Structure formats: C-alpha cells, structure tokens
Amino acid sequence: MKIEILGTGCAKCKTLEEVVKQAVAKIGGFHEVKKVEDIVEIMNYGVMSTPALVVDGIVKSSGKLLSVNEVINILTKDV
C-alpha cells in the first residue's frame, strides 16, 4: 500500500505524517509512507486544502487532521 501525506510543511501536515506512521505501526505489514510537499504534485491530485491523505493514488481525506484510529479505519477499510 502506498500512502502519501500531501502538505507544504505546516504543523498540521507534519502532525498528520506522524499520525499516519503511528497507524501504520499499529496495523503492521509493509506500507510505503511518503510526504509530498511539491505544490504542483499536490494540485495534480485536485487537493485545494491540506493536509491530505492519499492511499494508492486515491484522495481519502483533505483539509483536516485525522486521528490514529481514523487513519487505521481508512487503511483497513479496503483490505
């Protein structure tokens, strides 16, 4: 699973990155976590509000800070 955190480096974006890492540690398995800060790449996803969470190329959340449990639910919903 490829997980991307979209954001330009604001506090919420950094916090979401940490939350995602905690969620990935809890669910286990191999998951690629990547932080995307390039504004052009973020806009290519159609995201206008950060932070955003992208899983396997699909935007799952945009404009809000998720909890660890919310991220776990997103990551395990399609499994």
What does this structure look like?
With 79 residues, the protein is of the alpha+beta class. The protein has a single domain, classed as Glutaredoxin. 42% of the residues lie in helices and 24% in strands. The protein has helices at residues 11-27, 39-44, 68-77; strands at residues 2-6, 32-36, 52-55, 58-62. A four-stranded mixed sheet has the order 2-1-3-4. A hairpin with a 2-residue loop joins β3 and β4 (58-62). It is globular. The relative contact order is 0.27.
List keywords for this structure.
79 residues; 4-stranded mixed β-sheet; globular; Glutaredoxin; alpha+beta; 4 strands
List the helices and strands and how they pair.
Layout (H helix, E strand, L loop, with lengths): L1 E5 L4 H17 L4 E5 L2 H6 L7 E4 L2 E5 L5 H10 L2
Parallel strand pairs: 1-2
Antiparallel strand pairs: 1-3, 3-4
Helix pairs in contact: 1-3
Q: How far is it from the N-terminal to the C-terminal residue, by CA?
A: 10 Å
CATH class: Alpha Beta
Let me know the CATH homologous superfamily.
Glutaredoxin
The count of strands amounts to: 4
Along the chain, the helix and strand elements come as EHEHEEH
Helicity range of the residues?
A: 40-55%
CATH topology: Glutaredoxin
Coarse structural class? alpha+beta
Tell me the overall shape. globular
Number of separate structural domains: 1
Low confidence ranges = none
Question: Reading side by side through the largest sheet, how are the strands ordered?
Answer: 2-1-3-4
Helical run tally:
3
State the CATH architecture.
3-Layer(aba) Sandwich
CA-atom Rg in angstroms: 11 Å
| Binned strand content | 15-25%
Mean pLDDT rating: 94
